[in-house]
Amino acid sequence: MSGMYKKFLKQEERPFTLNITSMTDMFTILLVFLLQSFSATQINLEIPPEMNTPSANLPIDVDGRSTLFVRQNDVLWQKKSLLTREQLRSPQQRTVASESLKQWVAENPGQKIQLMADKGTSYAEIKMVLEMAATAQIGEIRLVTLKGVKDPAP
Question: Which residue has the higher pLDDT, 137 or 11?
């Protein structure tokens, strides 16, 4: 019995080897099968006429009277700095700024505003400005983009 015990220990002391050739072959076969079954064909989608699609080109007057400009350092409203970027992150400062927007909404009922942001504006900051406009009870906001213009803010 002591001989069997020694034989068992010798097998355990051998270095562990793993033969992955068969596993590699299986992965290769699976990869070839998936690549052959993949098809990249062109799909033509027909849009039903009753579906309203957004229009891309609208003539919008971007003169600063009804446009919120989110620039690198501040948010402009009616050609004046409404908030700095640091103040935009503060809920209290956004509340104060939305009061100014509320006053404009009261003077111009039903007026639409535009929101423009520069390339460096994060989605979180745009969301904060939209929240501020919603707090001011602005009903309709257009997101405006301009091609080829560096800084359209007045």
Answer: 137
